[in-house]
Structure formats: C-alpha cells, structure tokens
C-alpha cells in the first residue's frame, strides 16, 4: 500500500471545472454582492477543516489588504443535490458526497458554481479526504488532499478569478495531492491579479464579476 500512496502523491489532479450556471453564457455574469462577501459553511466540516478554510481566506485578504469574507453562520442543510443550493441566495461552502451529480470530472477535487443570486464551493467528499496534507495519511479507499490548498484555489474563483497557465499560480488548474503535498502560497501574479480584480470591482460599485 505504501508504494501506491507514494505514486498517488505524485499525481496532479484537475482541481475544479468551475463555471457559471445560467442562461446568458455569452455575457460575463455578475454576482450581485459587495465585498466583503457573506458566506455560510457546511456544519459537516470539523473545526480543523474550518480553520484550514479560514487560513485560505486570510491569504487572499492579506494579498489585498482588506476584508473580503464575512462569516454568516453554519448551514445545517447538507445539500441532497447541488441544484438545490443554486439560486438559494446563500454563498456556501460544502463537503459534497454526491459528486457524480455535478457533471464534473469524477476526480476533480472541488468546484465553484455561481449564478446571478449566489455562489457555492463544493469539495469532492466522495473521492477524497480533505485534511492537512502535510500531516495526515491516506486511507485505502480515499486519497488525502490538503484542504487549505484546494480552498485557496476555489476561493480564487469565488472572488472572480479564472484559471492561470502559470504553474506557480494557485489558479493553475492542477494540484499535486497525497501525503506531504500542499500548495498554500499565492504567486506574485496571484497577488497582482486579485488586487487588480478587487480594485476594478470597487470602481464598478463593488459588484463582483467573474472571469470566464
Ligand atoms: Zn479552478
């Protein structure tokens, strides 16, 4: 088993497949919320998992030098289908077991959906264990994934960023997973992009827009 885990730790996995869900795909969708963005968090996350997500939020806030996220309580309703949380006016982060329903690649780590009413981040809890990649171990049936790394990437989408072709960027769409794998730092490009993105959005009256 150890050998298999070693191989797994070297695999890069497609990290998401985030997209707008709506009819007018030819226009750049905007999400009607202002910074800081209110969010709710699935109460199935453990305290340790929540802390990892908050650290990822903090990294983006440090880059911009301002508050970008506001905690708005836990969400007790585990979504039976991701469709039920689209357009529910709640920006939520969820551990999602019914991954196949999303239409995303089976091995994707997480995804961000947004509509004109809200946006949601789903983590692929069907196939992965979201923990501390630098400390925790894989099990026989699910690979260990560093939650902070995936959260950092998906929160980039949550803030309106698209993917990057630069491998050092957190918005690069592949991530190494497995034991002792983590990517928790923003690149210089990430910092520049998010600063520019937030500035533009403030000039537009604080309306959050998403890169396509
Ligand atoms: Zn992505």
Describe this structure in words.
With 212 residues, the protein is an alpha/beta fold. It has a single domain, classed as Collagenase (Catalytic Domain) (3-Layer(aba) Sandwich), CATH 3.40.390.10. Helices cover 25% and strands 23% of the residues. The chain contains four helices and twelve strands. The strands form four sheets. Strands 2-7-8-6-4-5 form a six-stranded mixed beta sheet, covered by helices on one side. A two-stranded antiparallel sheet has the order 1-11. A hairpin with a 4-residue loop joins strand 7 and strand 8. Helix 2 (47-64) packs across helix 3 (147-158). The chain is globular. Mean pLDDT is 82; it is low at 1-11 and 22-29. The protein binds zinc ion.
Percent of residues in β-strands = 15-25%
The tally of beta strands, per DSSP, is 12
Q: Within the largest sheet, what's the order of strands?
A: 2-7-8-6-4-5
| Major sheet characteristics | 6 strands, mixed
Query: What is the CATH topology assignment?
Result: Collagenase (Catalytic Domain)
List the quaternary state of the chains. single chain
The domain count comes to 1
- What does the radius of gyration come to? 16 Å
CATH class: Alpha Beta
Averaged pLDDT, please? 82
The coarse silhouette is globular
Instruction: Provide the list of bound ligands, each named once.
Output: zinc ion
Task: Give the terminus-to-terminus CA distance.
Answer: 41 Å
Structural class: alpha/beta
Label the CATH architecture.
3-Layer(aba) Sandwich
Element pattern in H and E: HEEEEHEEEEEEHEHE
Number of helices, counting only DSSP H or I runs of 4 residues or more: 4
What is the CATH superfamily label? Collagenase (Catalytic Domain)
Unreliable segments of 5+ consecutive residues: 1-11, 22-29
Secondary structure: helix percent:
25-40%
């Amino acid at each position: 088993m150890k050998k298999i885990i070693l191989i797994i730790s070297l695999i890069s996995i497609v990290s998401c497949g985030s997209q707008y869900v709506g009819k007018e795909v030819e226009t750049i969708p905007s999400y009607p919320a202002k910074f800081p963005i209110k969010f709710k968090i699935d109460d199935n996350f453990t305290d340790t998992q929540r802390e990892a997500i908050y650290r990822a939020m903090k990294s983006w806030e440090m880059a911009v030098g301002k508050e970008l996220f506001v905690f708005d309580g836990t969400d007790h309703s585990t979504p039976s289908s991701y469709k039920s949380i689209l357009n529910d006016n709640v920006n939520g982060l969820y551990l999602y077991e019914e991954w196949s329903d999303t239409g995303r690649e089976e091995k994707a780590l997480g995804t961000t959906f947004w509509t004109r009413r809200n946006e949601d981040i789903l983590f692929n809890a069907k196939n992965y264990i979201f923990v501390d990649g630098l400390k925790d171990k894989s099990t026989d049936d699910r690979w260990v994934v560093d939650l902070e790394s995936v959260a950092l990437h998906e929160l980039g989408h949550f803030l309106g960023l698209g993917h990057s072709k630069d491998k050092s960027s957190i918005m690069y769409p592949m991530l190494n997973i497995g034991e002792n794998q983590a990517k928790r730092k923003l690149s210089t490009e990430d910092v520049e992009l998010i600063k520019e993105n937030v500035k533009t959005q403030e000039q537009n009256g604080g309306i959050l827009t998403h890169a396509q």
